[in-house]
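example protein:
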Amino acid sequence: MKHTAVLSAAFAAIALGCGLSGPPTPVPIPRDATDVSHIVVSVGTPRGYRTEFTLQVDFPASPVPELYAKALQAPWTQCDWSPEWRTFVDTKTNPARTVHQQLHFWFNRDAARTLELLTRYYSAGNSARKPDDNKQRVVVTELLGQNVDERISKLGANCPAKELRSNSTPHSDARRASSQDQPSSARAGERGR
């Protein structure tokens, strides 16, 4: 955890220096993760944070979504996006490759933030039933200043009904969205990564 705390402090300092409205939400990175990188997205829209890493785990293991489901408690809400493993052929690469993928989604309405978790394995060619190796690539993207309901709708995520709001009723997220892009001090309820 000490490793994560040092990275979190450095990441937060860079983020605040780039004019983002607060530090990233602290999420655990497994001790055995390799190729760890942190990216601050401070230009354009949306703004936020991206963390990427690789784990050596056999398919169809899903240790990171389970870890994050425990770590991201209220005010975060988890939704079903595409939690089952899906397989498709990525023809944009040369040569084409097979992608085995899961997608997970959380939101924090009060902070106008969303967190997207993508886990992937890759296989050569276009006919693999299971991945060629045990390298699970993980991408965690936290977006700031989000209209949560709009993002849920765009992704097609299935969220608990009690957490959804009608798009016809204005709410505080919609009113705050434009001010989220301006640098400001951290709002109540936000935590650092």
About this structure: Residues 1-18, 166-193 have pLDDT under 50 and may be disordered. Residues 93 and 125 are 10 Å apart (CA to CA). The radius of gyration is 17 Å. The chain has one domain: 2-161+169-180.
